[in-house]
Amino acid sequence: MATLAPRAFAFCHTFGLTVWIALAEGSGWSLIGPGLLLLLWPAVAYLHAAGAQNSKRAEFKNLYLDSLLFGVWCGVLDFYVLATVTIGLACLMNNMVVGGLRRMTISMALFAGGALSWSLVTGFEFRPYVSTGLDIYQGAGAVIYLLALAYVMYGQNRKIGRSIVEIKFQNRVFHALLELGVAANRASNIHTLLDDSLKHLHADFPEYGFAVFLQERQRPEVTRYAAVAGLRLGAEDERRLGGLLATLQERQESTIKLREKTDGEQLYASSMAGRLSLYDGWLVVRAPKLDAPLERMLTLFVDQLAAATENKLLHLALKKTAERDGLTGLYNRGFFESALQLSIQGKNQAPSLDFAVLMMDVDGLKEVNDRYGHVAGDQLITTVAERLQVHCRASDILARYGGDEFVVLFPSADIAAANRLASLIRTHIEGQRCTITTANGERLTLELRLSLGGASSSEASAQEVLSLADERMYDDKSERRKQRAAHG
Ligand SMILES: Nc1nc2c(ncn2[C@@H]2O[C@H](COP(=O)(O)OP(=O)(O)OP(=O)(O)O)[C@@H](O)[C@H]2O)c(=O)[nH]1
Predict the structure, then answer these.
(1) CA 329 – ligand 1 centroid, Å
(2) Is 100 left (phi over 0), alpha (psi -120 to 50) or beta?
(3) Residue 98, number of CB atoms within 10 A of its CB
(4) What's the ipTM?
(5) What is the CATH number of domain 187-321?
(6) Which residue ranges does the record assign to the GGDEF domain (predicted)?
(7) CB of 363 closer than 6 A to ligand 1?
(8) For residue range 250-280, what is the model confidence (pLDDT) as tens digits?
(9) CATH number of 333-486
(10) Is 57 in the pocket of ligand 1 (CB under 6 A)?
(11) CB-based contacts of 480: which residues, under 8 Å, 6+ apart?
(12) Model-level pTM?
C-alpha cells in the first residue's frame, strides 16, 4: 500500500523525537514506554486497510486516526512548537489531498480534539522549544516526509496516467466493436461487410492498417473475399498469405508475424480458424509491434468479424431460400407478391406511382413432360428463364409465378414497359430453338412458344392489374391456339 512507507516514517520519526525529549528532560520510560505505541500504529493501519473490503475507505479512516493520534501526541510532548506545526500541517495536507476542504476541516478538528482531550485529562503544559538539535532533527524529518509523500503521489499519478491511456484505448476498441456490429447489419453482402468493417477499424485506429482474407474451405479457388484499409500488400505478402491459408488447419498459434516491413513496421496475421464453419481466413494488421493490448484487440476483432461473416452468410442463404425459385434462381411467387403489394401501396399513396405487370406462360410444357420426361420439361423452363433474364432491366422484377408461368413487375412504369418487353420476347425468344435431353438421353431441339398478357395500374385499379394481365395472357393463349389450329 502506497501510504505505508510515509506513515511508518512519520511515526518512527515522532518516536525518535519522543526519545530525544525523554532523554533531554530525564522523563525516561514514562515517556518512551507509551511512545512505543507510535511504532505499532503504522502496522495496525496497514492491516486494517489491507483486510478491509473497501481498502480505500479504510485508509481514509486511518488518515483521520493519524490526525487524532498525532493531536494527542503533540499534547503529550507539551506542544513542542516545531513538531506541533509540522505534524499538524502534514495531517491537514494528507486529508486535503484525498478529500478537499471538508476532510481537512474534520482532520483539523480531530487533531485539535486529540490535543485538547490530552490537556484536559493531564493538565495543559506548554514547552515550545527544546534545543536547536531537536529543531534540526524535526525540520529534516519534515522535509524527508514531504519528499517521500511527493514521491508516492508521483507514482500514483503515473499509474493514473497509464490507466487513462488504457481506458482510452479500451474505449476505442469498444467503439470499433460497436461499429463493426452496425456495419455488419447494414452490409448487403460479404464484400461490403468486409470493406465497411475494415474502413471503420482503420478510422478508429488510423495508426494501424488492416486487411482481411476469407476463402471457402471446400472451394478455395472459387469463393474468396478480401478487403484492405490503410495497408498495402505486395505480391510476396499475398503469396505468403495464400500459403498460410493452405496450412491453416495445422497451425496452433493465433497471431503470427507475416513480414518485417522496411519502415520498422510489421505485418501480423490473426487466424480465424475454428470461428467460421465453411470458411478459413486471416485478419492482417500493420503495426509497430505486437504487444498484449494489440493482441487482445486482434482477438476481439477476429471474433467479431468471424461472427458477423457467419451471420451474414446464414442470413444471405436464408434470404435466397426465402426469395428465390429453386429451379431457375429467379424470384419466387412469394417475393413477387410482396413486391406487388408495395407497388399497389405506392399507387394508392400520394404522389401515386403507376406500375405494370407482364404475365407469361410457356406453351406446350405438359406435352414436353409427357413425351420426354420431367427433366426435359425442367430444361425448357430454365432455358425460358435464362432468356427472359437477358431482356429484363435491373429494376424489373422477374419471377417464376408457378409451373410454367413467369411474371415481370415493372415498378414505377406504365404499360409501355410491359409492351416493350413483350415485343422483345416476340422478336428474340418466340420461335427460337431450345436444346433438351430426353429421358432416354437423346438430345433434341424444340421451338420456344410463350403466351403473354400485360396490364398497368393506369388502366385498372391497382388490385386488379395482375388478374387483368392474367386474363389477357389467356386470351393470347386461346388466340394462338386458334391460329395454330387454322394453320393445321
Ligand atoms: N418439368 C416440370 N414440369 C412442371 C413443373 N411445374 C409444373 N409443371 C408441369 O407443367 C405443366 C403445366 O400445365 P399446363 O399449363 O396445362 O401445360 P401446357 O402444356 O404449357 O399447356 P398450356 O399452358 O395450355 O400451353 C403441368 O404438366 C405440370 O405438371 C416443373 O417444375 N417442372
Answers:
(1) 18
(2) left
(3) 14
(4) 0.95
(5) 3.30.450.40
(6) 353-488
(7) yes
(8) 555 677 777 776 677 888 888 887 888 888 8
(9) 3.30.70.270
(10) no
(11) 363, 449, 451
(12) 0.64
